[in-house]
Design a protein that fits this description.
mainly alpha, 2 domains, rod-shaped
Length: about 270
């Protein structure tokens, strides 16, 4: 009897092992949509009650609309304004930096060719005017160097390097605003976290009985959503700032190399 019992248990165990992959697959099918979209799990208590009453088959458009209303109400008007301002500011800064921090903008290929052509023709005044009237990084650097040639080649190089530092500082100031948004966004998120938790604890402190979960959920949702949006803004801002900084360092080296190559024509110029 004991052997028969053990055999039956073994058969049942074998059957469960055979059914286990199918059960796991069904569990994953049920869980993956939820894990892939965390936002739809945050719904109003009224929506949850409606689902319990058999309203789970309603169109998904209503859930999306509920989520939009949920985010708006969770943030509050002041945090909506703050995060919208940070979002628009970040997008504007990223577009500006992507357009301006490019080799074709900082070092126009036509400028180097025309400048070198004037030097070959010994048209030094025309070369200086060409560089001075060009607003690019390389143009301003060449104009600063040629403007001091009368004082000698060494003085011209000092003026050229000083202009390089000034132009690089201007570009660094522009990309530093991207870093500023990356620093401010999580701080506002943390402020919203503290603000929301204080609001929830205020409800607990003022209530003589156990407060309802939906009353506490307002402050807790504000605490979580502000932190979430703050991180959404901070992560791309910090990543783009590091990218722009690396690009700028490389472009500074390229501009310096090209400027020194063109100014090397005047090594024999002495102080007058």
């Amino acid at each position: 009897m004991r052997m028969a019992s053990d055999g039956g248990r073994g058969t049942c165990s074998a059957r469960w092992m055979e059914k286990l992959p199918g059960l796991v697959a069904r569990l994953l099918v049920a869980v993956m949509p939820l894990s892939a979209a965390v936002a739809p799990t945050l719904v109003w208590p009224a929506t949850a009650i409606a689902q319990d009453e058999g309203a789970a088959d309603e169109p998904s458009a209503e859930e999306g609309e509920s989520m939009l209303v949920f985010y708006y109400n969770a943030l509050g008007i002041k945090y909506v304004i703050v995060f919208l301002a940070l979002s628009f500011g970040l997008v504007a800064l990223l577009v500006m930096c992507f357009l301006q921090i490019r080799k074709a903008v900082l070092m126009p290929p036509g400028l180097s060719q025309a400048f070198e052509a004037h030097l070959d023709a010994k048209e030094y005044q025309q070369a200086y005017e060409l560089a001075k009237n060009d607003d690019s990084y390389l143009g301003q650097v060449l104009a600063a160097g040629m403007g001091k040639l009368q004082a000698g080649y060494g003085a011209a190089l000092e003026s050229l390097q000083a202009e390089e530092g000034e132009q690089a500082m201007k570009l660094e100031h522009k990309i530093s605003y991207v870093s500023l948004v990356g620093a401010l966004a999580p701080m506002f998120g943390l402020l919203g976290t503290v603000d929301g938790m204080v609001a929830s604890f205020m409800i607990i402190a003022k209530s003589s009985t156990a407060p309802k979960p939906n009353e506490l959920a307002i402050g807790i949702s504000q605490a979580l959503i502000t932190t979430l949006i703050g991180l959404w803004l901070a992560i791309p801002a910090i990543a783009c700032f590091a990218l722009f900084k690396n690009w700028l360092q490389k472009l500074n080296g390229d501009v310096d190399t090209e400027a020194m190559r063109l100014m090397a024509r005047f090594q024999g110029v002495g102080k007058k």
